[in-house]
Amino acid sequence: MRYERSSSLFASAQNSIPGGVNSPVRAFKSVGGHPIFMRSAKGAYLTDVDGNSYIDYINSWGPQILGHAYSPVIEAIQKAAEKGTSFGTPTELETQIAELVCTMVPYVEQVRMVSSGTEACMSAVRLARGYNGKEKIIKFAGCYHGHSDSFLIQAGSGAVTFGTPSSPGVTQGTAKDTLLAEYNDLASTSAILESSAGEVAAIIVEPVAGNMGCIPPKPGFLKGLRKLATEHNTLLIFDEVMTGFRLSKGGAAALYGVTPDLVCFGKVIGGGLPVGAFAGPRKIMSHLAPTGPVYQAGTLSGNPLAMSAGYALLSELNENPEIYGQLEAHGRGLVQDIATVLCELSIAHQINHVGSMLSVHLCEEPVTDFDSAKSGDNDDFKALFHHMLSQGIYLPPSAYESWFLCACLDDSTHNRTIEAFRSFR
Ligand SMILES: *Cc1c(COP(=O)(O)O)cnc(C)c1O
Predict the structure, then answer these.
(1) Using CA positions, which residue lies closest to atom 8 of ligand 1?
(2) Is residue 144 flagged as an active site residue?
(3) Which one of the listed residues 3, 54, 70, 144 is annotated catalytic?
(4) From the CA of 19, how far away is ligand 1's center (Å)?
(5) pTM of the model
(6) pLDDT over 90 for what percent of the chain?
(7) How distant is the alpha carbon of residue 219 from its chain centre?
(8) Which domains does the chain carry?
């Protein structure tokens, strides 16, 4: 494949945009080489500015669960745009999408819309703190909750320790209120709750981790967190920015039968437009301004274009829940065939899979937390990534990102993907 136009666009982008990208993982830094600039996308395929086409396993990092340029979503956006793009007043559509979220996620009684997953998580934590008057939060090493200060806390190895910031610009003062536990390790969570008794406002967790590859919760992990949170009078927040409306109508909470106190959404809920949301029972949500004292606001929150895209996509998912079973089955088929090929090639691997999320780790030991996720051979991953790209298969450009499947994948994309794996080495 030739990438001349991508290369020249990247060269000029680097002049006027830091690193040439508006979000770091797009820069291909962890796999090497230059990012590819896309021109358009339809269904399961991306087309770049040089005219190359790819089977897409990122789907905009999650939102495009029914494929790119999905007609009902595009039509909804077009119709909304003709009526005006933003009013700064309430609109009927905001109530309609809130009601739809409450229907699909039964434990949710009220929803507040924001414009990104970052905002959703940041605001949910503020609400938790305002609700129960405590200051600290527990997060898990390797979980990502957006880029707000409290969440940019390094994955230290000692579980029961204060976090240190993993980015310049995050103050020690902020970092000290974020306590780190190990994913899939209830004992580390319990130890922190004991040593910080009465101080923890919330435990925030990705119920299926998706930002260190895909890591499913071990049996009992989420139920155990639920029990610990209740015992310690702290709120359990599920960050379902990735998993919400992707793993089932009710997200991971419904899939695993565990109900959090608050939930954060993003990605799918916006149908490819910038949307996030946080939600929960009225008892907690009513603490938000203007009914309550916890301040939170947004000029473009509930924006009519974004709401129409989200509403169109969620409606399709609500009316066609069989999609989830189909995505899970497609994922299972891919996992089986990729595993077979990697065995034939004698390449050590671990493949994690939940529904329409999966990740291929090139390592010997099961990947269950951040430490084991880091054990993969990154040089092998780089080689695999670039090989697949050359075969027209677009994988996430990092070993720490989950693949996202969309409903447009079929036998033909499956077979091409497996053939591409077969020609690796
Ligand atoms: C993507 C993501 C976020 C951040 O969402 P943005 O819209 O990128 O701000 C937060 N939490 C999880 C689990 C995510 O995957």
Answers:
(1) 117
(2) yes
(3) 144
(4) 21
(5) 0.96
(6) 88
(7) 21
(8) 4-57+321-403+410-422 (3.90.1150.10), 72-319 (3.40.640.10)
